[in-house]
Automatic annotation (TrEMBL):
Catalytic activity: (6R)-5,10-methylene-5,6,7,8-tetrahydrofolate + 3-methyl-2-oxobutanoate + H2O = 2-dehydropantoate + (6S)-5,6,7,8-tetrahydrofolate
Cofactor binding, per record: Binds 1 Mg(2+) ion per subunit.
Localization: Cytoplasm
Native source organism of the sequence: Thermobispora bispora (strain ATCC 19993 / DSM 43833 / CBS 139.67 / JCM 10125 / KCTC 9307 / NBRC 14880 / R51)
Assembly information from the UniProt record: Homodecamer; pentamer of dimers.
Gene Ontology process terms (BP): methylation; pantothenate biosynthetic process
Domain of life: Bacteria
CDD domains tied to this protein: KPHMT-like (cd06557)
EC number: 2.1.2.11
Name listed for the protein in its UniProt record: 3-methyl-2-oxobutanoate hydroxymethyltransferase
Gene: panB
Cofactor(s), names only, from the UniProt record: Mg(2+)
Gene3D superfamilies per record: Phosphoenolpyruvate-binding domains
Low complexity composition-biased segments: 1-18
Length: 288
């Protein structure tokens, strides 16, 4: 047998495609995410709320984009995630789906849209998948949302969990504080295992001690996604406006990779100055 025929033989195992930056010619799926966990491969997730930025992130190879309820602050100008509604997030999710071709698009279920009952959760998730084209949903909470997760998964909806600092419960938690210290860490670990057992395909861990995130990650067969949870999770997520330096106040866990606010300010001032001086538009920017 020649080398070429051996390479094309059906018995030759296919090389796994990297989750970040890989070229599959199709959407990333929960199976791809599970395979990355098995390989010990780390991967990034960022938020997205519109088609243009989603396209940039998709072409950069980001495998999962989250249309977060953080849109309440960074898109709609509220001071928490609580006011944002399903009708607010549906068009944002649809835009992100239209702007991408490879990334899995996960839609946040906003406050009040799933807590009442598993049936309410399914009705909300169905809207995001049918009307906006989302590929999965995310919801916050541990044991109290297990019935919701079980019904969603059994109905064909991939579910991402969210533990630790759950912003929709900020009033109960007493503010934006680190969660999971002491005995609460054991409770969070049990909640993570319960979510996995219920069928969640991944779990976000927000603002928990690094050591706890490491324990949870090692204890689960599904990936953990950290945000303020240290370096030992399987993936990391940030709000894109935070990592680009667009938001004025950033928490400790954010690393600013670019001064987008400064660059935008300089650009718009340059435009304004040229308008005032008459330097813009020139003949090159005029029609005849």
């Amino acid at each position: 047998m020649s080398a070429n025929s051996a390479a094309s033989s059906p018995s030759t195992p296919a090389q796994p495609t990297a989750l970040y930056g890989g070229k599959t010619g199709r959407r990333v799926t929960v199976r791809d995410i599970a395979a990355a966990k098995e390989r010990g491969e780390r991967w990034p997730m960022v938020t997205a709320y519109d088609a243009l930025t989603a396209r940039i992130f998709d072409e950069a190879g980001i495998p999962v984009l989250l249309v977060g309820d953080s849109a309440a602050m960074v898109v709609y100008g509220y001071d928490s995630t609580l006011p944002v509604t399903v009708d607010d997030l549906l068009p944002l999710t649809a835009a992100v789906v239209r702007g991408t071709s490879r990334a899995m698009i996960v839609a946040d279920l906003p406050f009040g849209s799933y807590q009442a009952s598993p049936q309410q959760a399914l009705e909300t998730a169905a809207r995001f998948m049918k009307e906006a084209g989302a590929h999965a949903v995310k919801l916050e909470g541990g044991h109290r949302v297990i019935p919701q997760v079980e019904l969603l998964v059994s109905s064909g909806v991939p579910v991402m969990g969210h533990l630790g600092l759950t912003p929709q419960s900020v009033n109960v938690l007493g503010g934006y504080r680190v969660q999971g210290r002491g005995q609460a860490g054991d409770e969070l670990l049990m909640a993570a295992k319960a979510l996995e057992h219920a069928g969640a395909f991944a779990i976000v861990l927000e603002c928990v001690p690094s050591e706890l995130a490491q324990r949870v990650t090692a204890s689960l067969g599904i990936p953990t996604i950290g945000i303020g949870a240290g370096p030992h999770t399987d993936a990391q997520v940030l709000v894109w406006q935070d990592l680009m330096g667009l938001t004025p106040h950033q928490p400790k866990f954010v690393k600013k990779y670019f001064d987008l606010a400064g660059e935008m300010s300089r650009a718009v001032r340059a435009f304004a100055d040229e308008v005032v001086s008459g330097a813009f538009p020139t003949e090159a920017h005029s029609y005849h």
